[in-house]
Design goal:
single chain, about 450 residues, alpha+beta, Uridine Diphospho-n-acetylenolpyruvylglucosamine Reductase, domain 2, Cytochrome p450, 5-stranded mixed sheet, two-stranded antiparallel sheet, about 5% strand, heme binding
């Protein structure tokens, strides 16, 4: 009897003593490892005479880091802002930076206006690095740096922002959107996200690679879907994982776009689309982009244009449906614009690039949608060298996540930030918050 009681006592002691201790050891082991490695390598004081230390935070569990926590807040709890909120509550605002381990790498999260500006304006200290660069293209505008990046970025901005380009975009997009709206009205009830995705992808295919909807574009759509899922997933490259499917889909996209590129070259076909512009692009020495560079940039720009436009449009529909007063005011301005243009045909009533500056309230709705949609919640950088910032050190080789989302929903910068209020973009109010959106000018296209 005494032996049985002793055995039970031993097991209970193990259950309530050793196992919690083991869990605590596992929980703190990764953080302790990186802190110890940092102390051994960066012991002593920096050039400013201050003892070097990592930003506050926690590295999470071994190997996975805080990736599961990130997925919990974004996917399950549906409270993405609480991921950063939990860090602020635990460690204070500090220098606006926290250490963590995400996407397979030790990382620093920058989430204050000053910290974000410091990272984005220090190109010599922070390079561009996506978690899996080959998915978006090694030679694409989102991965290259220096003169190559400036050259590609300049071309893309010109292709999108010059008046003739804006007019072409308006001519291509509006008839398709009008046709889609009529189809939706006939259906009565639609799944907005699905329908918006379809019409957006059709427009992207037309403007970027001159492809009309077909069974092939349907496959391309599915492959881009896999690619987008892989970009957000942990980089496990073995069968069955999102990352592995993304790599397979990327190879299929490469094949399709290379075949299109070669077909154009064979017949010397010049198309007035983004692929055609990239094929004709030359550097200072008159050298054109390689096939790999053209394909990489088409893939990365489709990802950027497809995802961002779909998300922004979907959230605009959502917020306008919940805000009848705002919707009525928006309709009133657009109807007035249509009447002022005169004419009786649908073509004559289309909005042109010269009409856009006159549509003041529409512009406010767009700005508010972009703020709340958080199309790019973060951008990826990497420390090219040890960087000291406000008493902390960002180690060389660590990923740096510039967390833009937290700025867009921070009550310190926006009154009632989770409410959809286009009037916050009145000129009198805009001066108070425009600094936050200046960061967008530094984003990689």
């Amino acid at each position: 009897m005494e032996g049985a009681v002793g055995a039970w006592a031993w097991w209970l002691g193990l259950l309530f003593g050793a196992i919690p201790l083991l869990c605590l050891t596992v929980w703190h082991s990764t953080d302790a490892w990186y802190c110890a490695a940092f102390a051994l390598k960066h012991g002593g004081r920096g050039s400013n005479g201050i003892r070097r230390r990592l930003p506050p935070g926690h590295m999470g569990v071994p190997f996975l880091g805080e990736t599961l926590s990130l997925l919990w807040y974004f996917k399950l709890a549906r409270r993405p802002d609480d991921f950063i909120g939990a860090k602020k509550a635990a460690y204070g605002n500090g220098a606006g930076m926290y250490r963590t381990h995400l996407f397979g790498s030790p990382s620093i999260i920058a989430c204050s206006p000053a910290a974000n500006k410091f990272v984005l304006q220090s190109a010599e200290s922070f390079g561009i690095r996506w978690p899996v660069p080959e998915l978006v293209g090694i030679t694409s505008v989102v991965n290259v740096e220096g003169s190559s990046h400036a050259r590609l970025r300049g071309f893309i901005l010109a292709a999108i922002n010059r008046p003739s380009s804006l007019q072409t975009i308006a001519t291509v997009v509006q008839p398709r959107v009008v046709a889609a709206l009529r189809t939706w009205a006939d259906k009565g009830t639609i799944v907005a996200a699905t329908e918006i995705k379809k019409v957006t992808f059709a427009n992207i295919c037309k403007m970027f690679i001159s492809m009309e909807p077909s069974p092939l574009t349907a496959k391309i759509d599915l492959w881009f879907g896999d690619l987008l899922h892989g970009l957000r997933a942990y980089p496990f490259d073995f069968p069955g994982t999102a990352s592995h499917r993304a790599r397979k889909s990327r190879r299929k996209l490469d094949t399709i776009f290379r075949e299109e590129l070669e077909a154009r070259k064979k017949v010397n076909k010049q198309c007035d689309d983004l692929m055609g512009g990239l094929m004709q692009m030359k550097d200072e020495q008159g050298k054109k982009l390689s096939n790999e560079e053209v394909v990489d940039n088409i893939v990365s720009l489709v990802i950027a244009g497809y995802e961002s436009t779909t998300i922004a449009t979907m959230w605009a529909v959502y917020h306008l449906a919940k805000s009848p007063v705002i919707l009525a005011k928006l309709r009133e301005e657009n109807i007035a614009m249509s009447k002022s243009k005169g004419g009786s045909t649908s073509t004559s009533l289309m909005i042109t690039h010269t009409d856009i500056p006159k549509m003041k309230y529409t512009a406010k709705v767009v700005e508010e949608t972009i703020r709340m949609a958080n199309i790019a919640p973060m951008v990826h950088r990497v420390a090219n060298r040890d960087v000291d910032y406000r008493g902390y050190t960002i180690p060389k080789g660590w990923a740096v996540l510039v967390w833009l989302r937290s700025l867009h929903t921070d009550p310190n910068y926006y009154e009632d930030p989770l409410s959809f209020n286009p009037n916050r973009w009145d000129v009198s109010r805009l001066s108070k918050i425009v600094a936050c959106f200046n960061f967008l000018s530094y984003l990689v296209i």
